[in-house]
Amino acid sequence: MRLLERTTRSLTLTEVGEVFLHQAQQILRQVEETHRQITKSQGEYSGALTLYGAEYLFDLCSEQVSDFFERYPALSLTLHSYPENPQDLMDKRFDLMLMVGEQPDSSFIAVPLAKLHFDLYMGVEGTNGHQLSDEALLNNMPIAVQETSMQQCWPHARLPLLRPPRYSVQSPRLLTNIVVQGKAIGCLPVVFANHEVQQGRLKALFDGKYRFAQTIYGVYHSRRYVPAKVKLLLEDIRQHLPVLLTQLEA
């Protein structure tokens, strides 16, 4: 297929070459327009944002996220609780997902946002008036743990679990209620346990010896261009969430 006609004095397009040039110019214009639209959308704080995460994380961030969307009224928000296995979200469309704990290998990008601390607690009712040592309570009472990202929140490295937990739940509020009722020793998020400690319904064990932290991550699909609105929300959470958690855990 000849695109050019050469002579000793000139170089001209053949009929096929004219068609090829016309089509190529159209493609280039489409590419330029697509690039212009993408660049425009990257720089504008408007449109919809879809977030996945555990309900208790949304509860912790609710005031902050509400303030964020008040500052950017052209943005809209859709919140979803993620399924038991976050890997089920691989094929779903979302802008940002909040997760706690080590992230499994995947095509996602995980950005650390804040630390969520856990400690061991016992319901005051569970002692039945007996003055038992913390070690004795731990050896004799059922264990309750929270599941985060398919992991059990427990200080495994310093305090190995000698028996399987009787209660393993995703909701820290439900877990806290189980421990308050004296049904188990629980490894609870400090932000949820503090109020019950102040009310005299929970007591911390081992004087905080086994307190540990799990990282809260902002997770998004691996891609070269992250929309500016997603970067903006991610940075806002990273800036304000650690301050909020420090206040609630104090």
From TrEMBL:
SUPFAM superfamilies named among the record's database cross-references = Periplasmic binding protein-like II (SSF53850), Winged helix' DNA-binding domain (SSF46785)
Q: Which UniProt keywords apply?
A: DNA-binding, Transcription, Transcription regulation
- For this entry, the protein name equals HTH lysR-type domain-containing protein
One of the GO biological process terms: DNA-templated transcription
Q: Does the keyword Transcription regulation apply?
A: yes
Q: What PROSITE patterns is this protein classified in?
A: HTH_LYSR
Family, according to the entry, reads as follows: Belongs to the LysR transcriptional regulatory family.
Q: From the Swiss-Prot or TrEMBL record, what is one GO molecular function term?
A: DNA-binding transcription factor activity
- Protein's UniProt keywords contain Metal-binding: no
Q: Which domain of life is it from?
A: Bacteria
Species of origin: Aeromonas diversa CDC 2478-85
The residues covered by the HTH lysR-type domain are 1-14
